[in-house]
Amino acid sequence: MGFIEPFGHAMIEAFLEEDGLHFLRDRDGDFIVQFGYDEEINGHPRFLLAVAGEEQEQFCLRGDTLRRVPRADWDRALRLCNEWNAHYKMPKVYFEVDDLNASTTGRVVCEQWIDLEAGVHQELVGHLTSTFFSACFGFWRWLERQDALNALADADEPDGEDDGSDDEGEGTDEPWKRD
What we know:
179 residues; elongated
């Protein structure tokens, strides 16, 4: 186990380099890690690893899959986010819309904030980041299973009968499968 040090960008960069992950840096010095298309989750995973706070003591981890959810599927996206959050502590997931009045799409975001004001050792930064990545992939796989179950339920429904939902036939059988 390493020494406890103040948290900062250098610790995130050390983890990324040690794991051989390619990354970009934004103008604040934070890191963007984007993976190629993953068939299992039907998306392009992307992560933001940021340092925040007045004393740079907050570790913010965000993940998404670059998929957009059309307005017709927003209610379902919210219900699925709430269901996940009711059963699992990590990652926290939510549905995000840029402009509620003007946007036609939104996205599902995974997020975790960790206060490292007391300091941290490099191994823990690596563990926290790897655990977050793994938890996000777990969520995205769960989301795909929900879509598969939804598609099966729609296929079993006789034509012309109301399934009791309030979507009035809007949306698609697979609302998460977006480019």
